[in-house]
Amino acid sequence: MLSGKTIAITGAAQGIGKATALTCARFGANVAVCDINAPLARAVSDGINASGGRAIAVEFDVSSRTDCHRMVTTTQEAFGRLDGLVCGGMRRAYQPAEDFAEDAWDIVIGQGLTGYFRCAQASARAMLQQGSGAIVFITSIASHNAVDGGAAYCSVKAGVAGLTRQLGVEWARRGVRTNAVAPGFTVTEGALRKMSDEEAQALIPMGRPATAEEIGNVCVFLLSDLASHVTGQEIVVDGGYTACKNFTAGAIRQPASN
Description:
Strands 3-2-1-4-5-6-9 form a 7-stranded parallel β-sheet, sandwiched between helices. A two-stranded parallel ribbon has the order 7-8. By secondary structure, the protein is of the alpha/beta class. Mean pLDDT is 90; it is low at 251-258. It has one domain (6-237): Rossmann fold (3-Layer(aba) Sandwich), CATH 3.40.50.720. β5 (133-138), α5 and β6 form a beta-alpha-beta unit. It starts with 5 loop residues before the first strand and ends in a 21-residue tail after the last strand. The protein is globular, with a radius of gyration of 18 Å. α1 crosses α7, α3 runs parallel beside α4 and α4 packs parallel to α5. It has 7 helices and 9 strands; from the N terminus they run βαβαβαβαβαββαβαβ. This is Oxidoreductase.
């Protein structure tokens, strides 16, 4: 599905980013594993190479303009081109809005919105020159919903959803597609807490959280030529949660037959 393509993935040392890197490699892509945690990034790239894939590790800070450009040039030097970008990974801070610290706000916005734009801008310059490419932002169902203490986080994710639409339209005729994946409750190493079976049954129509691999699978689809006519879209992957927010286990029943 991605054979011969080169994909750079930010926040790829763990969680959804790691799962996406491994999935891209499994489908034949060359992968640049980009993360601020260099040892973990190297571990992921080493694992891909040991399994017969091709990967490099790039130490990378999404809030650095210099690192955004270096990510692109390093990937091009290693593999000759850049065909796709998956942009994920950011600091989170949850505080009551009236007490939200300005420095915490600046960090979250700087990494999650400004940083994503810089990554996309640097990557798109390379893609536009070759006339093809795909960008995938990781957003969240928080782009459409409030979260306790999430003034900065929800603002970032809503902003990235808007950026997805803008770039998806702006670059469409020049061969570069931009889309987003919005995960719901997802099991990752960095999850703040585990969701109990009872909570999952009550909140999620499918009865369980997503795995990181399931989010990665949707990213791979959007990066591939199978999604060649999809741009400017945000695909929600949440087991039906946002489609039926008031779902309670057993509350939705088949109508009685006549």
